[in-house]
Amino acid sequence: MNTYMLAFIQGWEWVIILLAVLLLFGAKKLPELAKGLGKGIREFKKASSEISYEMDRESERQDYEREQARHEKEEKADSSEAKPAKAEVEETKDSSESKA
User: Fold this and answer.
1) Residue 83 and residue 80: Cα distance in Å, rounded?
2) To which H or E segment does residue 26 belong?
3) Using CA atoms, how far apart are residues 77 and 71, in angstroms rounded to an integer?
4) Are residues 54 and 62 in contact, defined by beta-carbon separation less than 8 angstroms?
5) Domain map of the chain by residue range?
6) What is the model's pLDDT at position 91?
7) What is the structure's pLDDT at 9?
8) At 8, is the secondary structure helix, strand, or coil?
């Protein structure tokens, strides 16, 4: 049954549907069915919120790891640039000492 059909159900049709449900399940079973339906809906909402929370946490963890990797890469690049400069200074010292 699609949702367009439900849009055309009006007052008396709902009354007939409710009477049919009442006859099928009885007045004593309806509150139990409603309670079970409510518990089911609560469990579904809880599970879906837990899943979205876990997905958000995983996304944040991946973002953090990417950021850490980028920082490490920048530090390595900075340290590799600093080493040749240091080596050049030592070479300059060695050449000035050998001249003296």
Assistant:
1) 5
2) none
3) 10
4) no
5) 36-68
6) 57
7) 77
8) coil
Q: Report the chain's C-alpha Rg in angstroms.
A: 36
pLDDT value of residue 14:
86
Tens digit of pLDDT at every position of the chain (100 positions): 555 666 677 888 888 988 888 888 888 888 888 899 999 999 999 999 999 999 999 999 999 999 999 998 888 887 776 555 555 555 555 555 555 5
Q: Distance between CA atoms of 100 and 94, rounded to whole angstroms?
A: 10
- By three-state DSSP, how is residue 100 classified? coil
Q: What token pair was written down for 69?
A: 């990797």
Please check whether residue 25 is in contact with residue 33, taking contact to mean a CB–CB distance below 8 angstroms. yes
Q: What are the Cα distances from residue 69, in Å, to 10, 22, 45, 57?
A: 61, 63, 36, 18
Q: Which stretches of the chain are DSSP H helices? A: 3-7, 11-25, 29-99
Measured distance between the N- and C-terminal CA atoms of the chain, rounded to whole angstroms? 99
